[in-house]
Design a protein that fits this description.
- This is S-adenosyl-L-methionine-dependent methyltransferase.
- It comes from Collybia nuda.
- By secondary structure, this protein is an alpha/beta fold.
- The chain has one domain: Vaccinia Virus protein VP39 (Rossmann fold).
- Helix content is 36%, strand content 22%.
- It has a 7-stranded mixed sheet with strand order 5-4-3-6-7-9-8, sandwiched between helices. Strands 1-2 form a two-stranded antiparallel sheet.
- Helix 4 packs across helix 5.
- The longest helix has 17 residues.
Length: 258
């Protein structure tokens, strides 16, 4: 605790203890969270970056870095803190990745923008051609008119998402440190937990949305991988899929290759 107090001198130890005893996540109290080599700002109610997300994003960065032959365009759906595209921008070779984060929450859009500034990831511009870039848009990708309402940069080479996937019954059983502090819209994925995956499948089916050889990387609940794999395959456009485990051996990420 002394280290935390020195790092965050504006916080008194009694105040930190009081907030933690009430159930507030430590990441919100301290105001940051390591994510790979980055140290990202955390603010309620935006979802706190998790180690299982960090694990697959680093693995995806390794994959992208080994196959980069031209700059790629990435769309991150439900970007939250911006952790996924920002870590990819940090890890991939300069000038190979231009990313766009979408979120329905103004709090998330502001936090992702602040994190991009902290990580020195610029917004796209003629001067950013030789560096990786990140921009954000406030939008609801569940909307049937999403593609018409948002200034997208389709076709995309990569779609990433850690969408809400918790069912209603699971939501009722969450610890208070999650349900009382993190945004329900970033957690609840509909009665069955699959609403957002179906929306992503509808998007990638649209003509001109993906480039040839595009990849879609989706984080999933630990029992959902096979169902999400089926949802992606049902688009009729997928030629292969992979399921990646997290560090605890649970199926955590579905990759669909188009």
């Amino acid at each position: 605790m002394n280290q935390a107090t020195n790092t965050h001198p504006h916080l008194s130890l009694p105040d930190m203890l009081r907030r933690r005893i009430l159930g507030e996540p430590l990441q919100y109290i301290l105001g940051d969270q390591p994510f790979g080599p980055l140290n990202l700002i955390t603010r309620a109610p935006v979802l706190i970056p998790r180690p299982e997300t960090e694990h697959w994003v680093i693995k995806l960065a390794d994959r992208l870095s080994s196959t980069s032959t031209r700059p790629k365009r990435l769309l991150d759906l439900g970007t939250g803190s911006g952790c996924i595209p920002l870590l990819l921008c940090h890890l991939c070779p300069p000038g190979t990745l231009h990313t766009h984060g979408i979120d329905i929450s103004p709090h998330a859009i502001q936090l992702a923008t602040d994190n991009a500034a902290l990580c020195k990831i610029p917004t796209p511009s003629p001067r950013s051609l030789h560096v990786n870039s990140f921009r954000t848009t406030l939008a609801n990708f569940l909307s049937p008119t999403f593609s018409d309402d948002v200034n997208l940069s389709a076709p995309y080479d990569i779609i990433t998402s850690n969408p809400p996937y918790i069912t209603w019954n699971e939501y009722l059983e969450l610890p208070r440190s999650v349900s009382d502090y993190e945004d329900p819209k970033a957690l609840f994925g509909g009665p069955s937990g699959f609403d957002f995956y179906h929306s992503i499948a509808r998007l990638v089916r649209q003509k001109g949305f993906l480039n040839p050889a595009a990849v879609v990387a989706l984080e999933v609940g630990h029992t959902q991988a096979k169902r999400v794999e089926d949802i992606m395959r049902a688009t009729g456009l997928v030629h292969s899929t992979e399921i990646w485990c997290d560090p605890w051996g649970k199926d955590r990420t579905v990759l669909a290759h188009f």
